[in-house]
Amino acid sequence: MDTKSYKTLSATLATIEKKWLVVDVEGKILGRAASEVARILRGKHKTNFSPHMDCGDNVIIINADKVVFSGNKLDQKSYLHHTGYPGGQREVVARNLLSDNPVDLFEKAVRGMLPKTKLGKAIIKNMRVYAGGEHPHTAQNPQEYKIS
After folding, report:
1. Which of helix, strand or coil describes residue 61?
2. Which of 9, 37, 54, 85 has the most CB atoms around it within 10 Å of its CB?
3. Count of alpha carbons within 13 Å of 109, Cβ hemisphere only?
4. Burial state string for 95-115 with b = 16 or more CB within 10 A and e = fewer than 16
5. Residues 6 or more apart whose Cβ sits within 8 Å of residue 36
6. CA-wise closest residue to 55 among 69, 44, 71, 70
7. CA distance 53 to 102
């Protein structure tokens, strides 16, 4: 029996091929869209996925301001951060964050689904989020990607 057929191949920088994808999230539920984008960014949709490498694609998110929430999350979901000073915990409701900065809202959702390591920080740089329907990345010839 040939033992070379049982060899496990791991992705390297030479074998990784990154594509550019455009995802329109208009009318999509935030969490479901974010989990699909995180899967693409991580590279889990590829056959040569390696958990220790950045082998995902570059993703362009358009219409982030038209994302929807299921249930009462738009009024009940809150995002917390701390200023670093005593008593400096701040809370922002999802409705206010969506109206003020929809790009930040989508980035927070995707960042929470990626590893909390150096690899996760490198992977999040492969995502560009835009509130409107236009993006400046036409030179990369991005392909349309449909979220089910």
Report:
1. strand
2. 37
3. 27
4. eebbeebbeebbbbbbbebbe
5. 23, 147
6. 44
7. 29
Q: Quote the tokens at residue 20.
A: 């550019």
Q: What is the pLDDT along the chain (148 residues), one digit of tens a residue?
A: 556 667 778 888 888 999 999 999 999 999 999 999 999 999 999 988 999 999 999 999 999 999 999 999 999 999 999 999 999 999 999 999 999 999 999 999 999 999 999 999 999 999 999 999 999 999 999 999 999 8
- Return the structure tokens found at 147: 């979220």
List C-alpha distances in Å: 68 to 29, 38, 99, 102, 127: 5, 18, 12, 11, 20
- β-strand 143-145 against 20-24: which pairing, if any? parallel
pTM of the entire predicted model: 0.90
The two tokens of residue 82 are 């701390």
* CA separation for the pair 31, 110 (Å, rounded): 8
The residue with tokens 């392909």 is 143
Rounded CA gap, 76 and 112, in Å? 18
Structure tokens that stand for 106 in this block: 């989508």
